[in-house]
Amino acid sequence: MFVYEKQSTEGVGEKSVINISPFRRARKHFKNIMGGNRKGGRKDIPYDDSDDSIPDDPQAKMQRPLEIGTPTNLEYPPTFGHDEILQSSSFGIPVPCGPVLMDGRRASSNRKKPHRRGIRSKSDMKMPPTNWSVAGTSQWQYPEELMVSDIRELQLLDEFIYKKLMNLSLYNSQRDTICDVVFKKSLKEFHRDLTACLSIAMLKDVVTTQYRYRDLMNNFEQVLQAQVKNVGTNAAFPVTMGVNAFRGFLDEFMKESKEIRRKEKKEERKTESKSTKKERQKKDMLEYLGHKFLTVQFNIPTFCELCSSIIWIMEKGFVCQVCKYTCHKKCCFKSTTSCKGIPTPRANDGSVGNNQVFGFPLESLITDGENVPLVAEKLISAIELHGLYTVGLYRKCGAAAKVKQLKNAVDEEGIENVDLDEYPIHVLTTTLKCFFRELPEPLLTYDLYDDFIQASEIKESVEAIQALYAVTERLPKSNYHLFERLIFHLARVAQHEDSNKMSANGLAIIFVPCLLRTNKKMQAQESLQQVPKQSQCIESIISEQLRKLKATLADISTLNTAQATANDRLIYVRASIKSPKPGESPEEEFVEAAESPSPDNLGLFDARAEELALSAHIECIQKEK
């Protein structure tokens, strides 16, 4: 126990002894035996160690500093060193379990010090510690239902990409890095491919292929990688950075296109009558897997035939006008069942067959409203979307097992129910060649074989081209449309010769056995002599189509530049025109400016006239495009 001293009001201490600590008795006994403090030991604080008297000197109490948080009226107990405690244990005296207080120097080391943040090295500051791992993660993809489904959206995307190209060209090209140059070239090449797809869609007045946003992303990535190879730089190009930048463009386009389409539909509903409303419903009809879907607002709860969920009251969904198939809008493109009312191709004997297309006449594969067989159009569109930059396109053959599997799936299930994205690009090209090779009669027909050979023998290139085109115009209607689509596709493949290494000559050699052959019996020597003439015939047609394609794209680029310049001037003119007076329309103000020849009115008259001229000029450019 400790000895406490109570301070009185007069300043005189009043002592009260409770008990002597056993620890203190052991120390006193030890000093009697050893004769005082041990040599070299630590000196104790000087005060009387007797049992019956404790000095009442205030200065004696102040010889040792007070600990932080210790009461001022507490007299400190004696302290012992490590050796003294060991000695006390030899006498069998129990040591109290209270806290042993050290001297001021040792006690200060146990005081709470303010926490100081340590200085980290540069290596520690590079990457903050984290438990997040990229293992097993994948790149974010757009949902399946996000796609370009009609010509208007394709036009809006084409205009949007061109605006981005114009904005990028405004920056100083001298400060462009190699990444900027490659990205601009890739975006320009992507815009050319998009313009070609738009031309095909406008020619048919319908978008036969649904361009999903994830497909557009993959296509741009292929274009970007091809441009990186063409540049030939040793530096590692950040392809991911370019893809992310293009993803930002697509996100921006999604927001703008929704707003534009909403405004256009709002203006159409204001001006349309009942008759035009029915026509608009026919135009808004969506065709997918043979279904002719029309948007319907349901008045009673209806079950979706795909997901079996309820389509609630006042909710809009799709209903097929042929087989009455009902589904949500989001479930439309997830459906795999074709329309029950879709016509099936007929076999040679005229009987209704299954979905077989390989080895059947071309006339039996074309349905009403189509110029090109659906299987050929689907295969060509898939190849153009995913394989224009693939090295050895059409030269390399796909796996025979995969080709057989795809052909069987098309014949049994129909091309509408086959997911072509699951097959490699070389399997698709080999299947397309098999389609043309297995036709009962070649695409260029047996009757015109000799005419094609004679036209290819003309030495003058211009006359030879004219003769070849004159012969192709004599083809049957179905053959002519399919041959025209195929040649345009091969011209697009030859346009990317730097990436896919396929020239017009190479493509002609590959497709000659599939397109042009004779049923006459010839000797082997004569047949070998006609092979170069056959190749020359197809090569001349592909080369001429490639020349037309490049010239058309150049003209469209020139028209786009002129349209952008006219739009900028029109914005400037409209901003400079003063707003009309309250209650007065711009037309009335224009007539008033023309009648009163004041200087201000003359300037307004000129501005209004320029505005009308620019608007008419922009409309002419759009029609010419």
Question: TL;DR of this structure?
Answer:
By secondary structure, the chain is mainly alpha-helical. It has 21 helices and 10 strands.
List the helices and strands and how they pair.
Elements (H helix, E strand, L loop, with lengths): L3 E4 L5 E4 L5 H13 L23 H4 L20 H8 L14 H4 L14 H4 L21 E2 L2 H19 L8 H27 L6 E2 H19 L7 H33 L2 H10 L2 E3 L2 E7 L4 E2 L6 E2 L4 E5 L5 E2 L46 H13 L13 H14 L11 H13 L11 H8 L4 H12 L4 H19 L1 H4 L3 H12 L8 H53 L9 H10 L3 H26 L1
Antiparallel strand pairs: 1-2, 3-4, 5-6, 6-9, 7-8, 9-10
Helix pairs in contact: 6-7, 7-8, 8-9, 11-13, 11-16, 12-13, 13-18, 14-15, 14-19, 15-19, 16-19, 18-19, 19-21, 20-21
Helix proportion of residues, in percent? Answer: 40-55%
Q: Find the structural class using helix and strand composition.
A: mainly alpha
Overall morphology: extended
Low-confidence stretches: 1-17, 38-77, 79-109, 119-130, 343-353
- Radius of gyration from the alpha-carbon trace, in angstroms: 45 Å
Taking the alpha carbons of the first and last residues, their distance comes to: 106 Å
And the CATH topology of the domain at 362-555? Phosphatidylinositol 3-kinase, Chain A
The major sheet is characterized as: 4 strands, antiparallel
CATH top-level class of the domain at 362-555: Mainly Alpha
Strand content: 5-15%
What is the mean pLDDT? 75
Query: What's the CATH H-level homologous superfamily of the domain at 362-555?
Result: Rho GTPase activation protein
Question: How many beta strands in the DSSP annotation?
Answer: 10
Strand adjacency order, main sheet: 5-6-9-10
Question: Architecture of the domain at 362-555 in CATH?
Answer: Orthogonal Bundle
Q: DSSP helix count?
A: 21
